[in-house]
Amino acid sequence: MMTVNVRASKEYNVEIGDGIISRLGEMTKAVCPKAIKALIVSETNVAALYLDAVKAQLEGAGLEVAAYVFEAGEKSKNINEIAGMWNKMAEAGFTRTDIVVGLGGGVTTDMAGFAAATFLRGIDVIQVPTSLLAMVDASVGGKTGIDIPMGKNQVGAFWQPSLVLEDTSFLKTLPDDVFTEGMGEVTKYAFIMDEKLLDLLEKQNGNIRDDAAVLENVIGMCVADKAEIINEDETDNGRRQILNFGHTAGHVIERDSGFTKPHGICVAKGMGIFMDACVKAGTLSAEDAKRMKDLLAMYKLPASDEITAEDIVKGAMNDKKKRGNTLSVILVNKIGKAEIKKMTAEEFLKFLSV
Ligand SMILES: NC(=O)c1ccc[n+]([C@@H]2O[C@H](COP(=O)([O-])OP(=O)(O)OC[C@H]3O[C@@H](n4cnc5c(N)ncnc54)[C@H](O)[C@@H]3O)[C@@H](O)[C@H]2O)c1
Ligand SMILES: [Zn+2]
């Protein structure tokens, strides 16, 4: 078992461990002692597997439990489902001291967090992430939200959880391709800030799933990396932007595919494209680039895409992360060291086309 403490505008713990769900009731009582009611927000796939266990834990701690289960998938990440959660809580007479518990992947934790951030102007949320991506990324750091027809994650709030409880045994049921996708973000931490993680991933030679201790260790390292960044820059104005490595190009590839290509795969492609550009620009050694690309391949992730430099620049200039006429581009010029560089569209095109 491992604890990572996050000290953002709110302080909380991320508890990581094999079988740690057995401590959810006790830990919930400790962080939200006044709560009487809890709404579990989950989706069809995950609820079928884990809703009963989570419900039993919360009931065992004396809470009155309601559940809101939506259909699994990004399609559900919309305002209608959020309204359903608000109504469910209102009907059950929730007050400011009651809580939301998000049980699922990133779609679920983003929505559970947003419902909690907005109901009665904000109630506590406990996140119980069940996908690798949600454990290492989405459930930690307080970004919550939904999609609108014009774009993904366009509406949301910063709302930190009171507790994140990550039971790594839940990953046993995660489909292989969804696990691989999560590795896109795991390798990202290794590249931007954590050479020790890179060493461990190399040593594991493509398999971190079968050894519970290794899995816990890898997830813990990623969460500690994210916590370090959140503690410094909660709202994405400075260093938090390095978490976007691979995302500038990745988002464009993802959007151009009509969101049929998975996020983590697109991020890996975006990271690979940037590695090539940095090598060509002479700022990244061919040796470091090879090591990083070999790691992507080891974990069955791609490192390139057919997309043209022009299309990346055009797409990136429309991205919501853009500020004014310049883009914040994230570069890795040495393993474990990311750099934020402001570029105009012309400079960005030149960088990608060298
Ligand atoms: N808030 C943030 O900081 C942040 C960061 C990264 C991503 N995100 C968001 O996260 C979402 C993607 O998250 P995701 O990849 O977890 O998607 P997801 O929630 O759709 O889960 C992926 C798939 O895995 C299934 N699943 C999840 N856990 C399972 C388990 N233990 N066993 C079996 N099946 C399981 C789900 O039912 C789904 O089919 C996107 O909406 C993205 O915008 C948010
Ligand atoms: Zn991402």
Describe this structure in words.
The protein has 354 residues and is an alpha/beta fold. It has 2 domains: 2-172, Rossmann fold; 176-353, Up-down Bundle (Dehydroquinate synthase-like, alpha domain). It has 13 helices and 11 strands. The protein has helices at residues 24-31, 44-60, 79-91, 106-118, 132-138, 176-193, 195-204, 212-232, 247-256, 263-280, 286-298, 309-317, 345-353; strands at residues 2-7, 11-17, 37-43, 64-70, 99-104, 124-129, 143-148, 151-158, 163-167, 326-334, 337-344. Strand 1 and strand 2 form a beta hairpin. It is globular, with a radius of gyration of 20 Å. It starts with a strand and ends with a helix. The mean pLDDT is 96. Bound molecules: nicotinamide-adenine-dinucleotide and zinc ion. Residues 43, 45-46, 49, 72-74, 77, 104-108, 110, 130-131, 133-134, 137-138, 141, 143, 152-153, 170-171, 173-174, 178 line the site of nicotinamide-adenine-dinucleotide.
Ligand list: nicotinamide-adenine-dinucleotide, zinc ion
Number of extended strands: 11
Stated plainly, the CATH topology of the largest domain is called Dehydroquinate synthase-like, alpha domain
Question: What low-confidence regions span 5 or more consecutive residues with pLDDT below 50?
Answer: none
> What percentage of residues falls in helices of 4 or more residues?
40-55%
- Mean pLDDT, to the nearest integer, reads 96
Class from helix and strand fractions? alpha/beta
- The name of the CATH superfamily of the largest domain reads Dehydroquinate synthase-like - alpha domain
Biggest beta-sheet profile: 7 strands, mixed
Whole-number total of structural domains: 2
**CATH domain class name of the largest domain:** Mainly Alpha
The gyration radius over C-alpha positions equals 20 Å
Across the major sheet, the strand order is 1-2-9-6-5-3-4
Q: Which architecture of the largest domain does the CATH hierarchy give at level 2?
A: Up-down Bundle
